[in-house]
Design brief:
It is a single chain. This protein is α+β, with helices and mostly antiparallel strands. The protein has two helices and 22 strands. Strands 10-9-13 form a three-stranded antiparallel sheet, with no helix packed on it. The chain has a three-stranded antiparallel sheet with strand order 14-15-16, with no helix packed on it. Strands 1-6 form a two-stranded antiparallel ribbon.
Length: about 260
C-alpha cells in the first residue's frame, strides 16, 4: 500500500479541523467578549529506513539518514486573549474589562463561571445578572428607588436614591485572573470554568495586581478579524484540496501497478 494515501488523509482531517475552527471564529464575529481560536498541528511518527549518522562505508557516515513522515495531527486549539475593540453603549450595566481578568458569575450548580462578557442587567429584585440569569459575584443588589448607578474603574458600585444627592456604596466588583487562561475550559454561553491546566483563579480588585480596570457604558467586542479569517479559510481550503490531489495521484499510481502484466 502506498503510504501517501493515509498520509494525505491525515492532512485532509487536519485541515477539516482547521476549517471548523475558522468557521467558529467567523460565526462569533459579533459575540461580546469572544476570543478567537487557532488550530495547531504536529507531524506524526516517522518511518526510519536509515538512521542519521549511520555508517555507509569505511570511515564514512550518512549526514542525514532516510526518514519518511506519516502525516499530521491536530495538537491543540489555542485561544487568543488579545483585547477586543470597544463598543460604546451608554447602558449603565454594560461593563468592559480593560486589561486582564474575568467577571465571575454563579452557575445553576453553584459553581463559579468566568466570562469577558460584561452585558449585565438587573432582575425584578434589583440583583445584577448576566444575559442568561447568572448572578454576578460578589452579588450586587440595586435598591428600587435608585436614580443613578455608577461603576468606577476599581469596581466600586455607587448609587443615588430618589431626590437624595448623597452617593452610597452598595457593592464591590471583583475580577479573577489565571496563570494560564488558555487552559480554561469553554462551556458555551460566553463562559469558562477552570481546569488543571489553567490553574486556580486569583481573585482581586480591578486595577490591582496587574488586573484590568472596569469601564461603564461600553462592551468589549469579539477580537475576531474577519479579513484574517477569510485569508485563513482560503489557505485551509487550498491545503485540503492539495491533499485530495495527493490521494488522487496515489490512486492512479496503484492503478498503474495493478495494470502491470
Amino acid at each position: 500500500m502506498i503510504k501517501s494515501l493515509n498520509t494525505a488523509a491525515t492532512g485532509m482531517k487536519a485541515q477539516q479541523t482547521n476549517m471548523d475552527t475558522i468557521a467558529h471564529n467567523m460565526a462569533n464575529v459579533s459575540t461580546t467578549g469572544f476570543k478567537k481560536s487557532r488550530a495547531e498541528f504536529e507531524d506524526l511518527i516517522y518511518q526510519t529506513h536509515k538512521e542519521p549518522g549511520a555508517t555507509t562505508g569505511n570511515l564514512s557516515r550518512s549526514p542525514t539518514g532516510v526518514q519518511v513522515g506519516l502525516g499530521v495531527k491536530t495538537n491543540a486549539i489555542a485561544r487568543d486573549y488579545m483585547q477586543g475593540s470597544t463598543k460604546l453603549t451608554q447602558a449603565p450595566f454594560d461593563l468592559e474589562i480593560q486589561g486582564k481578568g474575568f467577571f465571575m458569575v454563579q452557575l445553576p450548580n453553584g459553581e463559579i463561571g468566568y466570562t469577558r462578557d460584561g452585558s449585565f442587567k438587573k432582575d425584578g429584585d434589583g440583583v445584577v445578572k448576566d444575559s442568561n440569569g447568572h448572578v454576578l459575584m460578589p452579588g450586587v443588589s440595586v435598591p428600587n428607588n435608585t436614580t443613578l448607578i455608577e461603576f468606577d474603574g476599581n469596581g466600586t458600585v455607587r448609587v443615588k436614591q430618589g431626590y437624595d444627592n448623597e452617593v452610597q456604596t452598595i457593592g464591590q466588583i471583583e475580577l479573577a485572573t489565571f496563570v494560564n487562561p488558555a487552559g480554561l475550559k469553554s462551556i458555551g454561553k460566553n463562559l469558562f470554568i477552570p481546569s488543571s491546566s489553567s490553574g486556580k483563579p486569583q481573585v482581586g480588585t480591578p486595577g490591582q495586581n496587574q488586573m484590568g480596570m472596569i469601564a461603564q457604558g461600553q462592551l468589549e467586542q469579539s477580537n475576531v478579524n474577519i479579513v484574517d479569517e477569510m485569508v485563513n479559510m482560503i489557505t485551509a481550503q487550498r491545503a485540503y484540496e492539495s491533499n485530495s490531489k495527493v490521494i488522487q495521484a496515489s490512486d492512479q499510481m496503484l492503478q498503474y501497478v495493478n495494470g502491470l502484466r
